[in-house]
Description:
Elements: E1 2-7, E2 13-16, E3 23-25, H1 52-61, E4 65-68, E5 92-94, E6 99-101, H2 107-116, E7 120-125, H3 132-143, H4 149-156, E8 167-170, H5 187-204, E9 209-213, H6 225-234, E10 240-249, H7 261-282, E11 289-299, H8 346-362, E12 367-373, H9 375-379, E13 381-382, E14 387-388, H10 393-402, E15 406-408, E16 411-413, E17 416-423, E18 429-437, E19 439-446, E20 451-458, E21 465-470, E22 478-485, E23 505-506, E24 511-513, E25 516-521, E26 525-532
Amino acid sequence: xxxxxxxxxxxxxxxxxxxxxxxxxxxxxxxxxxxxxxxxxxxxxxxxxxxxxxxxxxxxxxxxxxxxxxxxxxxxxxxxxxxxxxxxxxxxxxxxxxxxxxxxxxxxxxxxxxxxxxxxxxxxxxxxxxxxxxxxxxxxxxxxxxxxxxxxxxxxxxxxxxxxxxxxxxxxxxxxxxxxxxxxxxxxxxxxxxxxxxxxxxxxxxxxxxxxxxxxxxxxxxxxxxxxxxxxxxxxxxxxxxxxxxxxxxxxxxxxxxxxxxxxxxxxxxxxxxxxxxxxxxxxxxxxxxxxxxxxxxxxxxxxxxxxxxxxxxxxxxxxxxxxxxxxxxxxxxxxxxxxxxxxxxxxxxxxxxxxxxxxxxxxxxxxxxxxxxxxxxxxxxxxxxxxxxxxxxxxxxxxxxxxxxxxxxxxxxxxxxxxxxxxxxxxxxxxxxxxxxxxxxxxxxxxxxxxxxxxxxxxxxxxxxxxxxxxxxxxxxxxxxxxxxxxxxxxxxxxxxxxxxxxxxxxxxxxxxxxxxxxxxxxxxxxxxxxx
Length: 533
């Protein structure tokens, strides 16, 4: 059995853990809205056509926040056409995902669904085809008490009190060549627009906070210079920057999936360095915080690649000019037209998601908002009729529940491995990863509750590992339980019919003596080590 060591000490603190670190992201693509969130023909549908089984299951998870209503979609969405009586709403084309948008789910439905799910809405305004005035009007309609056209219209439409949306994203992926009305060619222009829009929105509601876009992928040609130019224009007026990254690994290289934490680390550290450089350059007292409000790790087959292009990423390389492409009109009760991710290798993909969450926890001093793409499905898996708990539900809810208080440094000594470079497609190309740790960890110290929780992944696909955890600095604390989750069947997946194929269980063999905990970490496993004072 391989050996791993880790040391914790209460004085080695990273920073306060935000209550919004483990949220989710919602956009009307696939079945995320049509079919899962909204289906008026579903037996549990409420008076708005929203699936009660889904939002009540989400409420039970304690999901702290959800970013909505997009995504690429929002850069062409006209929110004013989505309010009021449904028969009077306008149907538009969604140029981002080539679908009809009938606005059956509109501005009010999104926010009221969040209320029903017991979660905070983080709202994204349209700064693609939208304007500063549209954004300011949206805040007025959403948050202003009354006595104006927009706030009184909200009341007329059935929501007497303001929604009180606190956090607003200033557009989505505004540097992406795929984005509607992208600012790819003019980062300074977007920075000025974000600055002015944030000012106007805060003049409507001084209590809100805003998030500006930086590069939506570290693979884009202009990264990170685009980010730097944006930050220099809007640093004083915004509260966060928005980071997006998706890390794919090919099926024939599953070891690359859990190596992806290094890609996230590099991206986050680069953005922190840029923020701190601008802070110094502008002589600003403000320390910019980060929102990793779209992220994911997944097994993904290799797509089409065009060798010899030297990394050029132009608009015509993102499938936007496809002759004969048809727009699709989705029926939320007909899942044949809806895309849903495969559930094969569910345990490994669960560990990929959890690995990114550990990175966020290790940067809790600067990352204050996290929104997992696919996070709603990770918490509550669905099909046309049912809701159940997939494997990812358990690490996700454990981190929501127990990753509170202060993040601590985790010194881990373990076996490492290297991953050679690989390419998924023209854009997603990795130069390789070296010194990848087989054991990844993060720790939350909740002194108010007298609890400490250590989250640990053993990413070794072949061998168990013996972990020696040194907690001698925690005098007066005791080990309470070791919860583990793993499967011997790499293809196992939970389903409505079989929801118990991958479940957490208590490991009763783990022992702690004289401040040293000894635990067996199963191969490709998720582990939670709990302590109390």
